[in-house]
Write a structure and sequence with these properties.
Blueprint lengths: L8 H6 L2 H14 L6 H14 L3 E5 L2 H11 L7 E5 L5 H8 L3 E5 L10 H7 L4 E4 L11 H11 L2 E5 L7 E3 L5 E3 L6 E5 L13 E5 L2 H10 L4 E3 L2 E2 L10 H11 L2 H19 L5 E2 L14 E5 L4 H10 L29 H7 L2 E4 L7 H16 L1
Parallel strand pairs: 2-3, 2-4, 4-5, 5-8
Antiparallel strand pairs: 1-9, 6-7, 8-9, 10-11, 12-13, 13-14
Helix pairs in contact: 2-9, 3-9, 4-5, 4-8, 10-13
C-alpha cells in the first residue's frame, strides 16, 4: 500500500508535470514574472468558471480578506460578525484592521454560520458579515443575504475551503460559493482544492467600483504608476503560480469529483455506526470536501488521533481552539461568549485524509482502523 498522506499534492502534481513544466518555462522565457499574461488569463478564466464579472488575484487568502475589508471602507471600531469555529485568518484580519470581531455560532451539522445566532449579534455598529464555507460545504447564504439586506450590511464570503461548490437557492437557481455576497475571497494555498505551488489568493465581485478599488489596494493604492490615490498594500499573484493555476482550474471539477468519491466511500463504511456522525450535506449545498470531518459521539477523539498516527494514518483536528477562546483577542475587551455548539464541536471533530489521489486500499485501511478503535 502506498503511504497515506493527509493531502497528496506531490502525486497530483506529478500527473500534470509535463503541462506545468511547459507553462513555467513559458513564463521564464517571457521574463514577465509579475503580472504577466498568465495572471490575466487566470483572472479571466476564474471569472468565467465562477460566473462573476471581476476576479482580482493577490498574494494569499488572508490578504484577500484584508483587501476586501479595506475596499469596503470599514473603519476601526466597526463590528464584523464571523463564526468562531473557523481558521484564525478569518478573524485575524478583522483584528489587524482594528475592527471589532463579533463571534457567532455555527450549525452543528454543517459547521457553518447559524443565521439565528447571526441575527441576535447585530448591533448599530455592525458593518459586515463574514460567512465561512467551512470544510467545503456552503454557509446558508440565502438566509444570510436576507438578513444583510434587512440591516444594510456587507457580506464577505470566505471561500478558501469551498472553491467550486454550488449553492442552490429556493427558486432553484444556482451560484458558485464566493459569488453571492458583496465580495468573495479565496486562497490557493497548495493543499486547497485549487492549489498553487506556493501561496496565492483572489477576491471576486460583480461590483465594478468595488473591483477597481480592490485592484488598486492590492497594488499600493495606485491605478496609474506612482499616483497613489489610497492606502494600499503589495499583494500580487506571481506569473508562475498563475500559470500553474490556469492548468489546475481546468481540472477543478474533476478534482472535486474525486474528493466526493472518497467521501462516499467513507460514508458507506461508517453508515449505521452510532458513534460516528459523517458530514451532513444540506439541500441547498453540494460539498467539495476540502476536509472530511467526523463528529464523534462518546469516543476518545484524541486517543483516536494518536491510534491512527501509530498506524501511519494522518488525521487532523480542525479547529481545537475556536476564535472566541484565542488569547490574541484578549485586548479587544470582548464579551464572555457562550457558544455551546462551537465548544462542543471543538471537542469532537476529527478530519480524515481526503484528496484526489486516494485509492480503495488506502480508504479501506483507514476506515477499518477508525472502526477498530471506536468498537474496542
Amino acid at each position: 500500500m502506498r503511504p497515506i498522506q493527509m493531502v497528496d499534492t506531490k502525486t497530483q502534481d506529478l500527473n500534470i508535470k509535463e503541462e506545468v513544466d511547459a507553462a513555467i518555462q513559458e513564463v521564464l522565457d517571457s521574463a514577465a514574472y509579475i503580472n504577466g499574461k498568465p495572471v490575466q488569463d487566470f483572472a479571466s478564466g476564474l471569472s468565467a468558471y465562477l460566473g462573476i464579472k471581476h476576479t482580482i488575484p493577490c498574494a494569499n487568502g488572508t490578504d484577500a480578506l484584508q483587501i476586501a475589508m479595506m475596499a469596503l471602507g470599514l473603519q476601526p471600531g466597526d463590528e464584523v460578525i464571523t463564526p468562531s469555529f473557523t481558521y484564525i485568518a478569518t478573524t485575524e484580519v478583522v483584528a489587524l484592521l482594528k475592527l471589532k470581531p463579533v463571534f457567532v455560532e455555527v450549525d452543528a451539522r454543517t459547521f457553518c454560520m447559524d443565521p439565528a445566532s447571526l441575527r441576535k449579534a447585530i448591533t448599530p455598529k455592525t458593518r459586515a458579515i463574514v460567512p465561512v464555507h467551512l470544510y467545503g460545504h456552503a454557509a446558508p447564504m440565502e438566509e444570510i443575504m436576507q438578513i444583510a439586506k434587512e440591516f444594510g450590511l456587507y457580506v464577505i464570503e470566505d471561500n478558501a475551503q469551498a472553491i467550486g461548490c454550488d449553492y442552490t437557492f429556493s427558486d432553484g437557481s444556482k451560484k458558485k460559493t464566493g459569488t453571492i455576497g458583496t465580495v468573495g475571497a479565496t486562497s490557493f494555498y497548495p493543499s486547497k482544492n485549487l492549489g498553487a505551488f506556493g501561496d496565492g489568493g483572489a477576491v471576486f465581485t460583480n461590483d465594478d467600483v468595488l473591483a477597481q478599488k480592490m485592484k488598486m489596494i492590492a497594488n499600493h493604492g495606485q491605478q496609474k504608476r506612482y499616483y497613489h490615490e489610497m492606502v494600499g498594500c503589495n499583494s500580487r499573484l506571481d506569473s508562475i503560480q498563475a500559470a500553474i493555476l490556469n492548468i489546475k482550474l481546468q481540472k477543478l471539477d474533476d478534482y472535486n469529483r474525486a474528493r466526493r468519491e472518497v467521501a462516499a466511500y467513507y460514508d458507506e463504511a461508517f453508515v449505521g455506526n452510532a458513534k460516528i456522525t459523517t458530514p451532513f450535506v444540506a439541500g441547498y449545498s453540494d460539498h467539495v470536501y476540502h476536509q472530511y470531518t467526523l463528529v464523534l459521539n462518546d469516543v476518545d477523539r484524541d486517543g483516536l488521533n494518536v491510534f491512527l498516527a501509530e498506524n501511519k494514518i494522518p488525521s487532523m483536528i480542525y479547529y481545537p481552539v475556536p476564535g472566541h477562546r484565542q488569547k490574541m483577542f484578549d485586548s479587544f475587551d470582548l464579551p464572555k461568549y457562550e457558544l455551546a455548539t462551537t465548544d462542543w464541536l471543538t471537542e469532537r471533530v476529527i478530519s480524515l485524509p481526503v484528496h484526489t489521489e486516494m485509492d480503495k486500499e488506502q480508504l479501506a485501511y483507514i476506515a477499518a482502523h477508525v472502526i477498530k478503535f471506536i468498537n474496542q
